[in-house]
Specification:
By secondary structure, this protein is an alpha/beta fold. It has two domains: about 200 residues, no CATH class; about 170 residues, Rossmann fold (3-Layer(aba) Sandwich). The chain has 17 helices and twelve strands. The strands form two sheets. A six-stranded parallel sheet has the order 2-1-3-4-5-6, sandwiched between helices. Strands 9-8-7-10-11-12 form a six-stranded parallel sheet, sandwiched between helices.
């Protein structure tokens, strides 16, 4: 029987004739989710059925014999997943979970969980197909959250599935050449943040300046009002909120000028494929959104993440994605400074991806799911290099 791939929609095909609330709901509240549901699809070999989180339990049981679950930054006080715990229990199938992460302001803090989310994690653990780990987490910080719950042996650090969207053997060499000898950075894309992240305002304004000066694109993922300014729904944004966003991104522009700027530069995507296609046509992608940068990397375009909390920093460190903490950026951000700010270690990225890929394969196989041929080839190719070196 096929696996049940449970997560956000892979594409919102009817987005163009629906409001932004519809797009955001089907994306799971953040269009960045398109990245890791696409990555999860790429690592699952064989047949699968794709379901949203609220799929009827009887339908999932009827069609599938194991759940492959797309997770997110769900470990923190911002979630209460008791209802989802009950839903998974009612399905009753073995569970393989990928991409689970903890959210805190820094690694020095403890990610506190609500009782509902604790219950949900327990359900994931108790529905392991075997005694092997069945929960892939984003990094060591997230793993320690599960360890404190007594579930460390249920989890394995696998990073985010979005790291495996493009398994072409030539990808990393292509990226290395572009990072080392970049062309004149004539077009920049920004993975935009939120106007409520006040500590990033100076940086976000500088990034918007880059978009303006290079005729680049300003990609929004979350929240609803940021999606609306990218989809020409300004009449649906209340005046106070629109002014807040205006002051955050382009404070020197009047509201009328800001609206024109958004219509020229701001975009939002309905799936990972169209997103990556657009990023092929820029020279560099930068911003505080991890998945916006990861999609660039998977498309062969250099990028760098500006971290502001534990979740983005953890994913970058785990997967060797170029990153700078916003507090460490003490230079004026220009197109030229991006190259020196964000260094790409191709060897470290390659070796780490192989390691994370092998762990992902172990989880898949523990549930009887065949790993995708590309993922297996990635691991086997490196094994061959190791044998030759020995």
């Amino acid at each position: 029987m096929p696996a049940a791939l449970i997560g956000s929609s892979l594409i919102v095909e009817d987005a163009s004739f629906n409001k932004s609330e519809h797009l955001l709901r089907l994306s799971g509240g953040n269009t960045g989710n398109f990245a890791y549901i696409r990555g999860l699809r790429e690592i699952v070999g064989g047949s699968y059925e794709h379901f949203r989180w609220d799929a009827p339990p009887s339908l999932v049981r009827e069609k599938c014999n194991v759940i492959v679950l797309a997770c997110a930054n769900q470990l923190g006080p911002h979630t209460d997943l008791g209802h989802f715990a009950r839903h998974l229990e009612s399905i009753g199938l073995p569970i393989l979970a990928f991409g689970l992460g903890a959210q805190a302001q820094s690694f020095d803090e403890t990610a506190m969980l609500t009782e509902g989310t604790k219950r949900w994690v327990q359900v994931l653990a108790t529905h392991a197909p075997t005694n092997a780990p069945n929960i892939g987490v984003r990094g060591e910080f997230s793993w320690k959250v599960l360890e404190r719950l007594g579930l460390g042996d249920r989890a394995s650090v696998t990073g985010c599935p979005s790291n495996f969207i493009n398994l072409d053997a030539a990808l990393i060499d292509k990226l290395e050449r572009k990072y080392k000898a970049p062309p004149m950075l004539s077009r920049i894309a920004v993975a935009a943040g939120l106007p409520y992240w006040t500590e990033l305002q100076r940086i976000e304004e500088a990034l918007a300046d880059l978009v303006d000066s290079t005729q680049g694109i300003y990609v929004t993922q979350h929240e609803i009002n940021m999606i609306k300014i990218a989809r020409n729904e300004f009449d649906d944004v209340d005046g106070k909120t629109l002014s807040l966003i205006n002051r955050y991104i382009r404070p020197k522009l009047s509201q009328a000028e800001f609206i024109r700027w958004c219509r020229r530069h701001a975009v939002c995507f309905i799936d990972a494929a169209s997103w990556m296609e657009a990023l092929r046509n820029v020279d560099f992608v930068v911003g505080p959104r991890f998945h916006g940068v990861m999609l660039a990397i998977q498309a062969g375009t250099p990028g760098g993440v500006i971290a502001h909390d534990s979740r983005t920093l953890e994913m970058c460190q785990t997967m060797q994605v170029p990153v700078q903490h916003f507090k460490d950026i003490d230079v004026d951000i220009t197109a030229q400074s991006l190259v020196s700010l964000f260094k790409f270690d191709a060897r470290a990225y390659r070796r780490r991806r192989v390691e994370l890929g092998r762990r992902s394969i172990d989880i898949l196989r523990s549930g009887g799911v065949t790993p995708a041929a590309g993922l297996q080839a990635l691991a086997e190719e490196d094994l061959q290099e190791e044998r030759e070196a020995a």
